[in-house]
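thread: overnight batch results

M.L. [08:02]
morning all. the overnight job finished for the chain we discussed friday. pasting input first so we're all looking at the same thing
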Amino acid sequence: MSSAAPTRDDALRAIVSATTDAVSTDPDKAQVVFRASGTGGAGVRTHLRIGEHTLLIDEPPALGGDNEAPNPVETALAGLLSCQVVTYRFWAAHLGIPLDDIAIEVEGDLDVRGFFGVDSAVRPGFGEVRVVVTLDGPAEPERYRELAATVDEHCPVLDLFRNATPVTTSVRTA
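M.L. [08:03]
and the structure it wrote out:
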């Protein structure tokens, strides 16, 4: 007699349970450091190393690149989008809200006058970011509204976009 393979939701609930238990008994285990490193390449390319992964960042020709890869602000939006997907999946499983599929679109408005120093009153980053989430599943709409509110409260990358995060920069010379 074979047992059925655990579902994605079962696996996510097990991760939530194990992590909650571990950090509840030892809060030091809750602290995690994420790292990325990179080097400049041809034109304005950046070769990134993130854990075991490598990634290329570039710009379109209008910004000095060859359009060989997404640009930095596109990858910031992609980080938000992918973190939303992960957070929706985890919290749907944790709250017992059936979620068959999720699709997300993210777009941001950026005024390049800030980047190029044309107008010091214009910030160099996004002036606004919009996230459109489409959820598919058999639950009542109220449950998906509950899920969305929970995701907005717990999504780490959304938190980065919504709240100031202290950043310390140091410069070394070779």
